[in-house]
Amino acid sequence: MRKFLALVLIAALGAVLIAAVVNLPEPGTTDSPVHTHVSAGYIKGGHEAGGADNLVTAVLLNYRAIDTFGEVTVIFTALIAVLAATSLAGPTERSGTQNIDLKTTRVPVSPVVSFVVRLMAPFIATFALFVMLKGHELPGGGFQGGVVLGAMLILLALFSGRTDKTDDEELPPGLRNWIRAAGPLVFGALGLTGLVFSGWLFSLPDHPFWREMVMIGLELGIGIGGAAVLVGLFRALREG
Amino acid sequence: MNVLLTHVDYIAAVAIFLVGLYILLVKQNLLKKILGLNIMETAVFAFIVTAGMTDNGVPPLLGPDAVGPFASPLPHALVLTGIVVAVSITALALALIVRVKRECGSVELNELGKVE
Amino acid sequence: MMAAIQATLAGLLIVAGAAFFFIGTIGLLRLPDFYTRVHAVTKCDALGAGLVLLGLAILAGFDGSGIRIIALIALVLLSSPTAGHALARAAWRAGLEPWYRKSGHVGQ
Amino acid sequence: MSVSDLFDLLILALLITCVLGIARVRDLATAVTLFAIYSFVLCLLWAHRGAPDVAMTEAAVGAGITAVLFFTAIAKIGRREK
User: Fold this and answer.
1) For residue B45, what is the domain's CATH number?
2) Do the Cβ atoms of A110 and C89 come within 8 Å?
3) CB-CB under 8 Å, A113 with C82
4) pLDDT in tens, B67-96
5) pLDDT, average across residues B29-43
6) Could you tell me if D33 lies within 8 Å of chain B, comparing CB atoms?
7) Burial annotation C39-69 (CB, 10 A radius, 16+ → b, else e)
C-alpha cells in the first residue's frame, strides 16, 4: 500500500517535472536566459572585476563571496554537529542492544598497500596544493584542492593510522581546532580587510599583486580548512 | 518526439531524481534512504550544470588564447558549493544513523516503530 | 612523414589497449569466481589503460601534456595492482574459498 | 547525432542503470559501490560539459570521501538490508 502510494506520487511528480522540463530552452543553445542574463556580464567583466582567469573562482571568491562564506561556515557547523552526535554521552546506555554480531575482527593492514599509499601521498598533496594555488588561472581552487587533500588525508588515516588506539591525531588538539576553523576564519578576516581598505565587505584590493595574494590566501584557507573538516568528519564517524 | 530527443539530458536528470525519490520513500533502511537523498542531490546538480553548458563544452577559463562561447560559470560555482555541503549533510546523517543503531539496536524504520 | 608515423604508432597502441580492455571485460563476465575475476580486471586496468595512455602521450608529443600523461601511466601502474592486491587479500581474510574444478581429476 | 551526442547518451544510460541497481540490491555495500561508480560516471559527464572544476570535486568527493563515509557507517550498522 505504501509502495503504491509512493509510486502514484512519483508518477504525478514525474509528469509535472517532464512537462516543465520540455518547455525549457534546448540545452546547449547560447541564447537561452542562463547565458544572456547574469553570466554574460561575468564573462565580459570577469577578468577585470573578478580578478581571475578561471571564472568559477572569480564567481566564488568575488561575485558570490557571501555565499561562499556561508558555505564554509555550514561545513564547519556540520563538523561540530557530527562531533556532538558521536561523542556526547547518551542519556542511558541501553543494555542488551549492543550489536555483538558486528564485532568484526580487524584485518591487519597489508604492507604492500601501506607502502604504496605512503609513496603516493606526497604527490597527491603536491597536486592538491597546486590546484589550490593556481586556482585563479587553471581549473581548480579552494574547494577542489581541499577535497583532494581531504581524500588523501582520509586515505592515510585508513591505511597507516594506528588501528589499535582510537585517538591517532597527528596534531596537538589546540592547533587542530584552529585549522578546522581555518575556512571561516581566513574568509572573515580577509573580508574585513576588504571593508577597511575599500569600504566594501569581501571586496578584493585593486592592485593586481595584492589582489592575487588575497585570492591565494582565501583559497589556501578554504582548502586547508575544508580538508581538515572532511578528515574530522571521517574520524568522528569512525570513532563514534 | 523531437522535443524528447533534444531535451534528453533534462529528462535523464528527472528520471534519476525520481528513482532517488523512490528509494527515499519506499526503502525502510535509513542508510538506503541517505543514498536516495544523495542521488536526488546529484540529479539536481546534473540538471543545473546541463542548463549552463554550451554545445562545444568550453570551460569558463579566460586564458590568453581562449575563444567562446564559454559555459556559464555561475551554475558551476553553485554546484561546487552544493557538493561540499552535500558531503557534510551525508556525514551528519550517517553519524545520527550510527547513534540510532547504538541506542535502539536497529536501523530499519519499520522496526524502529516498535522500540519503546 | 613524422606526423604520419606518430599517428600510426599512437593508433596501434590505443587499439591494443582497447583490445586488452575487451579481453579483461570478457574475463570479468566469464570467469568463475572472485579471485580469477580480480586477476582479469587488474590486467585489463594496468595494461589496457597503460597502452591507451602511452598512445595518447605519443600523440600529444614530448611537451607538457605528454609528460603529464607519462606521469599518469606511472600512477596507474602503481595503483591498479595495489587495488587488486587489496581486494584479493580482503576476500581471503574474509574467508572466501577459491574456486576448484568440481570433477576433481586435475589437481585436487 | 554526432559522436559527442552518442557519448552523452551512453553516459546517461550508464547513470540510470547504476541508479536502478542501487534501488534493486539488498546488500548495502553493493549499493554504496554502485553509488561510487555512479559518481565517477557523473564526473565524466561534467568534464564533457565544460565543467572541469565540478568534475574534479565530484571525483574526489563522490567516489572517494562519500564512499568511505558510507562504508565506515556500514561497518557499524551491518551490511544487510532487511
Assistant:
1) 1.10.287.3510
2) yes
3) yes
4) 777 888 888 889 998 999 999 999 999 999
5) 94
6) no
7) ebbbbbbbbbbbbbbbbbbbbbeeeeeeeeb
